[in-house]
Amino acid sequence: MEYRNEKDFIGEIKIPIDAFWGIHTARALENFSVSGILVNRELVHAFGEVKLACARVNYRLGYLSEEIFVPLSQACMEMSRGELDKWIVVDAFQGGAGTSTNLNICEVLANRVLRILGKEMGLYKFCDPFEHVNLHQSTNDVYPTALKVAALKSLTALEAAVNRTQELLQGKENEFADVLKMGRTELMDAIPMTLGRTFGAWADALSRDRWRIFKATERLRVVNLGGTALGTGLGAPKKYILAVVDELKAISGLPVARAENLVDNTQNQDVFVEIMGMLKAHAVNLMKLAGDLRLLAMGPQGGLAEIELPALQAGSSLMPGKVNPVIPEMLTQIGIQVMAADQAVSWAAASGQLELNAFLPLIAHHVLSALELLTRGNVLAAQKMLPDIRANRARCAQWVLKSEAVATVLVPLIGYHQAACVAELMKEGDRDFISAAVEVTGFSREKIETMITPAKLNELGFSDAEKR
User: Fold this and answer.
1) Are strands 12-16 and 3-7 parallel, antiparallel or unpaired?
2) Under the phi-then-psi rule, with left for phi > 0, alpha for psi from -120 to 50, and beta for the rest, what region is 461?
3) Buried (b) or exposed (e) across 181-198, using 16+ Cβ within 10 A?
4) E strand or H helix at 233, and its extent?
5) Nearest Cα to 156, choosing from 374, 349, 339?
6) Residue 290 structural domain
7) Which residues are catalytic?
8) Which of 148, 156, 213, 247 has the most other CB atoms within 10 Å of its CB?
9) pTM score of the predicted model
10) 17 Cβ contact list (under 8 Å, min separation 6)
11) 123-168 residue pLDDT tens
12) For the domain that residue 280 is a member of, what is the CATH number?
């Protein structure tokens, strides 16, 4: 392999001659070979847009020549489209508050410019990672800004995915509106309800998640770009500081705005704690949905089996014919992972000291990973499970008629004690609800049956005409 030599103030390192990265990336590869997990690609793409915004403003203000600006713009756009991903090679877990990520990106962009200009890579006198690509910037303002841009775009994808999941649940609410089933509290029989109401409750929970995603977007739109190292803007011209966020807004199509207090926005990362709390709430709702689906589908012969989940793959290497609820199991694991990420982000944000949080790489990894996991989980649930859920109407009706708890529907008509007699007769005489209720109350079978119709059970309470 051929190499080129690159130097910094620490010393000299040989770099593969065809590598778009340089000496600072090489040092990061040596120092942080820890997880094998690369920097999130969405963060890399967002960096492309941030660097493009900085380059455009610097060019307009006369700080970049056209000879550098034109190929740099092209390189930034290529990065934003993912065309330079293979050269962003540093580990996601790194010291330096993201400096290694920023320098890896700056080196790649600089060397891409050199290639466009027909120069050899590493000849930074023609395009320098610091003097040109990182002009009027600090890792401390471009990294968190890129993170927020990436998170905002990921939130858009998550909102669309959650919206689709909610729509499918609402569709099942209508489809199962006439399916009578037992409601259960503390895993014990309670009172009858419809299967549609069960799906409707899940849909409403996800509607709150959509609202939380909207609020998360509001929190993330404020950025510290232009604040440079501490938020004071030291080293950057005032005209650049006042213009660069608006340029990023135009490039990204996102409603980003410059923070009123750039020092606060640079050092305090509580916004990501808040965002993770909102994502955790969605993870909780997905886990609740997944757990309920597993319970309702359990068996099928030896369990509730009130619904049927689509069979996606063989469930056992030993037991023929076994099928497992793999999508709900996946959603549960996603939920657990997101809640663990929430804790990691909280600790990382709390551990920042004075004017900078050194642990932004950890925050970035967990925030963006959580967004990606939740988005993919919703997409897969919508594609592979929710449309094909079927109600086992006969099984649902069977559990209703066999459960003594159904006697509760008679309380408004005959009172608690007489209703308890119906339940007792069902238990001791092995009778179904309707025959036991007819015997105890003297009401006709038709009257008893009207008490457990889906329409009746979906009413809000009972009327004066129905009281005893």
Assistant:
1) antiparallel
2) left
3) bbbbeeeebebbbbbbbb
4) none
5) 374
6) 141-230+252-393
7) 316
8) 148
9) 0.92
10) 1, 2, 3, 4, 121
11) 999 999 999 999 999 999 999 999 999 999 999 999 999 999 999 9
12) 1.20.200.10
